[in-house]
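Weekly structure sync, notes
Attendees: PL (lead), two postdocs, one rotation student
Agenda item 3: pending single-chain targets
PL asked that the sequence for the first pending target be pasted directly into the notes so everyone works from the same version. It is reproduced below exactly as submitted, 114 residues in total.
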Amino acid sequence: QVQLVESGGGLVQTGGSLRLSCAASGSIFSINVMGWYRQAPGKQREMVATLTSGGNTKYADSVKGRFTISRNNAKNTVYLQMNSLKPEDTAVYYCKVITAKMYWGQGTQVTVSS
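Predicted structure, written out during the meeting:
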């Protein structure tokens, strides 16, 4: 089993920044992909950013140029640096890790006030 602990969410004004962290622990042998997803009220969960073990990144068009995903392999931690936040970024953000199986974090709330 793999446990994911997310942190860093909160309330921020438009144009502000937040950094989310997701630490993985447990039976980790190899992490293939780490990523962040979000779900706003009444909407489907969507991909925000992903990072493969090979260093390839993918971003949603809506966050390109504003968000940056990174990873600390030694700590099995993935980060999401969010800059120039907008009210439409308000959502619960979930960390996802893919090893031999797929695991989700519990989610952390990000609220951007206008």
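Discussion points:
- The chain has a mean pLDDT of 95.
- The first strand starts at residue 2 and ends at 7.
Action: rotation student to compare against the earlier draft before next sync.
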